[in-house]
From TrEMBL:
Protein name, entry field: UmuC domain-containing protein
Biased composition (Basic and acidic residues): 514-524
Matching InterPro entries: DNA/RNA_pol_sf, DNA_pol_Y-fam_lit_finger_sf, DNA_pol_Y-fam_little_finger, Rev_trsase/Diguanyl_cyclase, UmuC
The UmuC domain, residue ranges: 13-262
Amino acid sequence: MAAVPTRNDRRVILHLDYDCFYASVFEVEQPALKSVPLAVQQKQIVVTCNYEARRRGLHKLQLIKDAKRICPDVVIVLGEDLTKFRDVSKELYSFIRGFVWGERVERLGFDELSLDVTDMIDYNLQILNPHDLTNAFFQLDVKDPTVGFSYDATRYLGKTVPLYPEGIATPLEIDSLGMRLLLGSHLIGYLRTRMEHDKGFTATGGVSTSKLLAKLVGSVHKPNQQTTLLPPYETKHDSSLEDSNVIQFMDSHDIRKIPGIGSRLAQKLSHKVNSHSDAEGDGERRLTVRDVRLFPSMSSATLERVLGGPGAPKGIGVKIWGILHGVDNTNVMEARDIPTQISIEDTYGRGRLATPEDLRRELEVLTRSLIRRMRTDLLDDTVTDGTQPRWLAHPRTLRLSTRPRNAPETDGARSYNWNRISRSAPLPSFVFHVDENVDSIAERLVHEHAMVMFRKLHPEKSGWDLQLLNIAVTNLVESAGDQKQSRGRDIGKMFRQQEAVLKNWSVHESGPAAEERAAVDHRATPSPRQATSREERMQQPGDCTGVAVQVAAQVAAAAWNRNDQSGSEESEDADWQDEDECDRSWRVSPANVECPLCGAVMPQFAQLAHQTFHATEKGGD
DNA sequence: ATGTGGGAG
DNA sequence: GGTTCTCCCACAT
């Protein structure tokens, strides 16, 4: 029997999914649209439609032609320009973030959010009066006990899995998983109400203990509803796992519906499972998580063999094996202030890009958008005192991608080509000249750079048949010296103390053995802060993070021992360099240290980081 | 550093 | 005759 991965169920995670987001943006703009079937068009397809349209048989990714045939009175609006959607998405994001303690609110695409509300739930469990659960009050502000909402702590709000119509009125232990999820259900209900009343957007919600489970359970009842995945999550020792609601819930899903399992992985899995039991050729019956999980001799090692190979991420077997058991220990990451890339693309019908003139014209259109996007997203708009606005980050690479159409086969049929090809080159610095106008920058960039890259991609003089052009800037380097206070950390103090801190640990004495010893030693020592009460920590949010982040990053990074950051970056422009990039999102709490890049949690370093922080605090200053 | 592939909405 | 417009991450070289 293959080992069953263990889940971390200490957290409470909420998932929000705005209902048919693009269509809702138009409805909020023009409320009259709410009562008609509404479809949002990009090129020749319906990218989304409202529920009135769905009632009449329309759906996502349908051809406009078909949509009109099925529902002749459908109202169609054009949604190729994403600016509006992007802006609304950011607004809703900061609205929700305003309610959540800490920074753990993650945006997935334009229309989904994951929230780690563990701290809020823990606090509200503490202040819960066990003798009057039906008249509970959920406090949204630690400092002001009047800010919050009333709720009934004997019932779950909204739907549950498995479904109990009354939301259950049960005597739950105060500190049980069920009670934490129950509070989560009331919190997400409150957030959904506020979103609708204040902003006009309805959302579907999910409540569980991980991003994976909250997202999956959220989609059980749509739209404008919410669902909580009920305990028990754990499996009794030596049972066949089926007494866990998580296993039951995961098992019922089509393998392709699981986040993290895309079409390629689903295809490989179905090949593996069906080649054994399938007598029919090409039998396309749906494959469930259960089918894969219980397949003979299935294990993380089997999955690694089936799914791994050249190009595949290492450890994919372990990861997928976990997912099949509902295990997702990745953290909700706080928002990044800048994106990692910006790209603009358009698709073209046959013959639309036949000549170099066509090509150049279209490239200029795309490039103008790109420069405008760079200015709106990357320029510091807080500077209004007449001086030149500063770039928050400089992309270092320009990339041009195309997707050629396939040549017709002998029977004249053309198969669809999904693949892109691309060329990259350093981004010239004139694109950062803020006082030059967009058109002339775009013209120059296309003429001197993009066209050259295009010729490398397509050496023929003309007659290419391209479906798609994409131009992107990537490889963004954040600028230094920006005091965008990420939770009041004092950088000056941090650097002044850093040397002393690191000396204690001898982390810069190289060698993994030394770091390992340091880690072990400190793990054995009790931290003076361990006994600190929860409220005390809550009222000083992020107090420890300044030095601890710096320190834990160094120790953890060294011990993690993945990439030597030998990067000897040569300096072209001084202001391109940043002093403060790698450490900025390392998260340290009394229980955890978390890698900002992969989200891995390393609790073994938490105590180390905290202890040293407080030692420093005592000695320094 | 550059290019490709897979995944997400 | 045939799906949009993005964004993110990891791997290979």
